[in-house]
Amino acid sequence: MLRTLVSLCVALAFAASALAQSDAPRAEISNGTIAAKFYLPDPDRGYYRGTRFDWSGQIHSLEYKNHQYFGQWFERYDPKLHDAIMGPVEEYRTGDSALGYEEAAVGGKFIRIGIGAVRKPDDKRFASFRTYTIVNPGQWKVKKGRDWIEFTHLLADDTGYGYVYKKKIRLVKGKPEMTLEHSIKNTGRKVIETSQYNHNFFVMDSQPTGPDFVVKFPFDVQATRDLKGDAEVRGKELAYLRVLEKGQSVYTELKGFGVSPSDYDIRIENRKIGAGVRIRGDMPLEKIVYWSIRTTLCPEPYVKMRIEPGKEHRWRIDYEFYTL
Question: How many domains does one find in the chain?
Fold first, then answer.
């Protein structure tokens, strides 16, 4: 009976997701080697309308050589749920909080980059998983070509924060490569100090997280938490010792990297399907968090930036997809 109820809940979640997908604005790009499908930011009809992740660049499908790299990994869908989102999605944090949260009065506003200005409802600590009320969504613009798409979010707010945030996703001509080019121009009167990380919700051919997967780094990696016999670090690799069951997870911060951007270089490979992906950034790592459950693997590399009023900061993340 319990298994039947669980199956019914999963089916209902996917049905709700399919209904939202049919109405949500979307787009596709391809370079003839890679094909990627996007959900577009929209305050009224967007697939994702939560207040954790940047609304731009959510890829619900990326196909290379008949291998699928992203997709739905969660059971429960709600457009305002903090993690009902897919693809290489990004969150911006200021310390353990959000931009302007600590200085905002109860009832005042703080900033979620790539989302807008949101209401601070009480004096509780900021909670990344909490869905806050958006009071100023800013303005979104989307432009695209055959093999690229560019998202621009403009925010001007009486909190003193303002920015022009751009993310251009480009498929490299003739190659199985994708580039995420970012820029933030500070148009407000206050400094924008933030960390950005990419959650990288990989779903590779719907394979369960387990010993067929290996995650590779260019340095000897160290886990800061007990992996409880589910996984272990071996030199420059994180490997799984068993297939994760529903409800199980592997979560730890990873150490061992240095100050060079060359350490922002992570590979995920699956021996069973013979597919892999390489992720590289052009900024030094601030930290790496690693999280996985049965349905997704998520290396989360953080970078840090400080942008003075009138200044602009640019950075990029490169993805290379390959077969083994």
Answer: 2
Burial class, 248, CB count within 10 angstroms (exposed 0-12 / middle 13-18 / buried 19+): middle
Q: Are residues 262 and 319 in the same domain?
A: no
Give this prediction's pTM. 0.93
Q: Are residues 5 and 107 in the same domain?
A: yes
pLDDT tens digit string along 94-133? 999 999 999 999 999 999 999 999 999 999 999 999 999 9
- Domain range for 230 is 213-299
Residues 237 and 182 in one domain: no
Q: What is the pLDDT of residues 31-77, one digit of tens each?
A: 999 999 999 999 999 999 999 999 999 999 999 999 999 999 999 99
